[in-house]
Amino acid sequence: MKIKKLLLMLVFLMLGMLISFGHVQAAGDNYLQKVKQKGTLVVGTSADYPPYEFTVKKSGKTNYVGLDVDVAKKFAKNLGVKLEIKNMDFDSLLVALETHKVDMVIAGMNPTPERRKSVNFSQLYYRGNQYMLINKKDAAKYKNIHSFKGQTIGAQTGSLQYQLVKEQMKGNSIKGLAKLNDLVIALQSGKVNAVAMEEATAKAFAENNRSLKVINPHFDVTSSQTGSAIAFPKGADSMVTAANKTIKQIKQQNLINKKYIPQAGKYMTSNTKKSTMLNYWTYFAKGIEYTLLITAVSVFFGFLLGTLFALMRLSHVKIFHLIAVWYIEFVRGTPLMVQVMFVYFGIGTIIQSLPALVAGIIAVSLNSGAYVAEIIRSGIQSIPVGQTEAARSLGMSQREAYRYVVIPQALKNIWPALGNEFITLIKESSIVSIIGVGDLMYQMQLVQAATYKGVLPIFIAMVLYFIMTFGLSNVLGHFERKMKHA
């Protein structure tokens, strides 16, 4: 009971620190001044939403393009600063904004009353209708929201479309996913009957996939709900004012219709022509590089942490034992995804310069350390007590007995379990893609967004993960066989 109470106190203390820190940040509006001083405007987006934001390949590198990106570039130019784009899941964007990981969010976002409670919005820079994407073979069946009765409708989680489907199509099931590409795959595979999305985006997908069709389901949408605006932290009035000046210029010059949308259309056409997977091999190669880097570093630190906490849990010093138990039980009792988000958005609130890659490595290392600790502890306890007693009788200290007698024997026993943990890390590292780390899963999603192909990039990523895990499994098996003959 004492341990449970201490754990609860620790959780509430951390939450209290984050909440109080957030209030301190909100005091005083020096947001615009800070952006100009650092010389960089950090923009959060979800680059799977053509023609608003998506990716293209230029000289083997990933470039973010689209209507929203052009608006962000115009804003950054007016401020006299450089533009830095952070790509992450749509439903993580406002969290990143509130925890000051980004200076603003531009992602075809509707300024709904619910969102206005948490963040500030600029004026609307573009207004579009709410449409639905369906399979062309179902065109005769579906005409409006009433003809979908009893069907399953897909929508991006956290979006206006999700809210509209939930409120106005109550006789339907709703399937929410973070990525539009995944929803389009679900549509093509029959998992959903339609996907609700903004007009321009729906038309973009339909124009690049002959099996899909766009319809206007005639949602009842108020003027306050339609249109896209830029989101800023609560209290960042100076940023909102500056953004509104840029939006006014864009509207006066009609840049969106004359320049930004046609330019996005050209990029989309170019992507469609170059949509073979071979053209995107550099994406997958970069993903493998990041995945192996995260795994290697996390294995190293996870093993060190695991060894330390295993010895602490076996220690007769009560405080060391309790700390180890708290750490192991807490980490094993919470999902890795939550831990990754807490390290990046939570601890990252205090250490704002914490890169996503470093945050991902920290979270994966801490998570692995808890499981490795239990593996090592079980290995040590599997060695008969007589081995330690014999070593001590020969004049060895407790430390020497562990180093030269217990640990080498325990390592032989736990090697298969450790190997499984290391292999698992390769696969679990894919979770860091939710905070924008460019691992294999993240790169796969970029390829999906760029090529409008959903299943093939998944298959390629699956094969690449298998090659990595199978290769590591063989290496670990080689060392295991050597240990048996040692």
What gap, in angstroms, lies between the N and C termini?
46 Å
Q: What is the typical, i.e. mean, pLDDT? A: 86
**Named CATH topology of the largest domain:** MetI-like fold
Which stretches of 5+ consecutive residues score pLDDT under 50? Answer: 1-8, 17-28
Structural class category: alpha/beta
C-alpha Rg (nearest Å): 26 Å
Could you state the order of secondary-structure elements as H and E? HHEEEHEHEHEEEHEHEHEEHHHHHHHHHH
Report the β-strand fraction as a percent range: 5-15%
Q: State the helical fraction.
A: 55-70%
Structural domains: how many: 3
Q: Which architecture of the largest domain does the CATH hierarchy give at level 2?
A: Orthogonal Bundle
Count of helical stretches: 18
CATH class of the largest domain: Mainly Alpha
Outline of this structure?
Helix content is 60%, strand content 11%. The chain is α/β, with parallel strands linked by helices and 486 residues long.
Verbal overview:
With 486 residues, the chain is α/β, with parallel strands linked by helices. It has helices at 2-26, 31-38, 67-79, 93-98, 113-116, 160-168, 180-188, 199-207, 237-252, 255-273, 281-314, 318-332, 336-350, 356-381, 385-393, 398-428, 440-451, 455-484, and strands at 40-45, 54-58, 61-65, 82-87, 104-105, 119-121, 130-135, 152-156, 173-177, 194-198, 212-215, 231-233. Helix 6 links the parallel strand 8 and strand 9. The chain is elongated and about 90 Å long. The relative contact order is 0.12. Mean pLDDT is 86; it is low at 1-8 and 17-28. InterPro entries: AA_ABC_transptr_permease_3TM, ArtM/GltK/GlnP/TcyL/YhdX-like, MetI-like, MetI-like_sf, Solute-binding_3/MltF_N. Its main location: membrane. This is Amino acid ABC transporter. GO terms for molecular function: transmembrane transporter activity.
